[in-house]
Specification:
By secondary structure, this protein is of the alpha+beta class. The protein has two domains: 74 residues, Arc Repressor Mutant, subunit A (Orthogonal Bundle), CATH 1.10.10.10; 66 residues, no CATH class. 36% of the residues lie in helices and 19% in strands. The chain contains six helices and six strands. The strands form two sheets. A four-stranded antiparallel sheet has the order 4-3-5-6, with no helix packed on it. It has a two-stranded antiparallel sheet with strand order 1-2. β1 and β2 form a beta hairpin. Keywords: DNA-binding, Transcription, Transcription regulation. This is HxlR family transcriptional regulator. GO terms for molecular function: DNA binding.
Amino acid sequence: MPLRSDWSTELCPVRRSLDVLGDPWVLLIIRDVLHGTGRFEELRDNLRISDAVLSRRLRAMVEADLLTTADYTNGGRIRQRYVATEAGADLLPLLQQLAIWAEKHTPTPEGGGHMTLFHETCGQETTRAETCSACGEQLRPEDMTWVKPWRGARHHLRGAGA
């Protein structure tokens, strides 16, 4: 899924990571999957992305071992949803740091509000991405809730395979 060329064999780890993560759709899809939105239709509707683009991104993300599929039953039929792998769940600090950075350095559009990264284990908001600013514990997806006031939503995150 390279943007410009194949950087997968580069010595620079930033270039190698951008070879996999350089497409903005990848981080948005991972965000939604960690929020528990893993069915194709849910991802398509939530992200407002075309079927073709989403299909290509999901296929590439499975090949890159960011996502895997898991079966679920819907109306007696077995369907598949996407879940994060360990590599996908390990992107949580990056996603949270992007949110923290945007809260600090970009204007909040009208009708928005402060997004809270809530650490369920200690019950406090955290202002850091990898360890809780309140208790110091490492932050894992399954211990986090993102509160989005503009949506009136609380998204309890899911870890790898969940």
